[in-house]
Amino acid sequence: MSSSKSNSVGPPAAVRRYLRSGVRSVAEVRAFLDRRGLPAEAIDAVIADCRRQGALDDQAYARLAAEHWARQGYAGRAIRQRLAAKGVPDALVAEAIARLTNEEGDAERATRLLSQPRWRRAEPSRQARWLAARGFDDELIERIVGTADPE
């Protein structure tokens, strides 16, 4: 009896703490609650409650996460993969990527990133590795690094 009482009180408090530590997707919260052994019906109820309170919104999560990763220097392809790995629905991933592309495409982002003092001084091979690690495609890297290095 006390365990069911702790389940009815504990998970919402645990979810509030989990959500305070960062913006989360519905899938991440679902996995968090599942790891704590909650039944599917209870998980659905907690998620519905969080959505009603505005504490859980996959569309906002996708937009914020995509913007964050773009500022960190990731290409659209890498951002798409990261959002999918977080369980964001495909339609919301596509919407977030389209919004980013309207603001700044991969070529503009790569050029802007390489214009930073740290990367302007870097060897072209290092620039290329750094861009590749962030999901930029080879053709774009060759074009950008080739134009960024006058030699």
Write the layout of secondary structure elements.
Elements: H1 2-20, H2 26-35, H3 40-52, H4 58-71, H5 76-85, H6 90-103, H7 106-114, H8 117-120, H9 124-133, H10 138-148
Can you characterise this structure?
The protein has helices spanning 2-20, 26-35, 40-52, 58-71, 76-85, 90-103, 106-114, 117-120, 124-133, 138-148. It has 151 residues and is mainly α. It has 3 domains: 2-56; 58-103; 105-151, no CATH class. Helix 2 runs antiparallel to helix 3 (40-52) and helix 5 (76-85) runs antiparallel to helix 6. The longest helix is centred in the first third of the chain and has 19 residues, at 2-20.
Order of H and E elements: HHHHHHHHHH
So how many helices?
Answer: 10
What structural class do you assign from the helix and strand content? mainly alpha
| Largest sheet features | none
* Mean pLDDT reading: 88
- Global outline: elongated
The helix content, as a percent range, equals over 70%
Tally of discrete structural domains = 3
How would you describe the oligomerization state of the chains in this entry?
A: single chain
